[in-house]
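Dear colleague,

Thank you for sharing your sequence with our group. We've completed the structure prediction you requested, and as agreed, I am returning the results in plain text so they can be pasted directly into your records. Please verify that the sequence below matches your submission; if there's any discrepancy, let me know and we will rerun it promptly.
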Amino acid sequence: MLRHLFKRRFCAVPATATTQSAAATTLDLSAVASNVQSVAEPKFTNETASEIQQTTPLHSQQNPLQAQCLVDETPITITASPANTNAVLETLRQSNNPNINYNVIKPKFAVLDQVLDPESYVLNLEKYDLKNLDRSEIQEIITKMKQMYHDIGLVVLTNTGLTELAEMREWANVIVEQGQVYTGGANPRKPVEKNVYDVGAPKEAWLHYHHEMAYVSKSPLALSLFCQHSPGDKGWTYCSDSIQATDKLLNTPFGQKLKDKQICYIRNLTDKAYYSGSDESEVYNHWQDSFLVDDPELVEPIAASRGLKIEWDIRGSNRFLKTRYYTSAFEYFPQLDRNVLFSSVADDFMWFDTWPGIDTVPVDDRPLKLTFGDDTEMTQEERQQFVDIYDQFGFPIRWNVGDVAVMCNYRFAHGRPSYSLESGEKRDLGVVIGSTFDRVGQNDDKW
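Please find the predicted structure tokens below.
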């Protein structure tokens, strides 16, 4: 819709990257961790993923809608100007686009501590001096971390006494292991340490629950967030138990519709070169920053490796990129031998409802969009259900300096409400993205 409004300026205020350098920790946890018997969930290599894919040929084949979607699409040609605003709206109404009547849906982020017993995932380290541990203490902590992660899929280290990102990353890597370079991602994240990124979103925006990088064919097995500065009783991250959310959603007509139709992720990325030297405060994400290349010819192989279909819109010197990814709304999770919900409205235009600047852009013109796999739109009621299902099983991580959280990307979605900072307050979280797995989608025999 509104194809000729694509010259709009996709807006966002990039999160301020932490600039303080962190001293390298002297504790080599990885060497000790390798000698501790691991009960963490098994790693699935590309070969393993391929074997799983062979057992589910329906999802290893290209969605027939992929070949059809770009052919069947009939763009509406409208020249944007204040004078024809009513004509734009009327054209949308005549096209029966349900998004014209969209009302903002606010996630609740309720404090529901008993979704899971905190003792099952919180590891209080106040009795340890993490900067002066002996070998047996290191082994003890690592064993507890791996057991929690295996059993629950979430570990939160508290009272660590750590202040530097590099130190926190070492403990995150006990589970996450090798941090990945953030390529093909939708968010404009900036590196603050090697393979450590800032959260990449303005504090004014609420962030809907989401599974990390669900919109590409290679998603991380795990991710870690850790806190360098905390404003106290606000700016908390929330986790939602996707196992419980899956079971509840599948008992609804909307859940069955997602199961049957699957979904399509659409992203619109701007051209960094076009904005060079100009004000970028209203730009969301450039394709150069997303794919970490400057040459358009190099984008296609990276996109293909992520399962993305790409479409260039060249307008003079402005090279605008649209990507599409067709997949299941669910993902088969080998450890539990079942499908889990792996999608949310965070990958829809709703992500920007409170994002400064872009919140005023018409919903069909925002950088992200989510549709069913047959390219049909979700209704207001269906989007509300999508938000509510995660809210029902959400609970907070109350950040203190030095806290380290590691979560299984299959089993937990994460998000946060908007927050404000007073003079002198800071909220700085580091993010480490774990090694990736090849998405296989839902297994129709594993419901």
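Summary note from our side: The longest strand covers residues 318-327.

Kind regards,
the structure core
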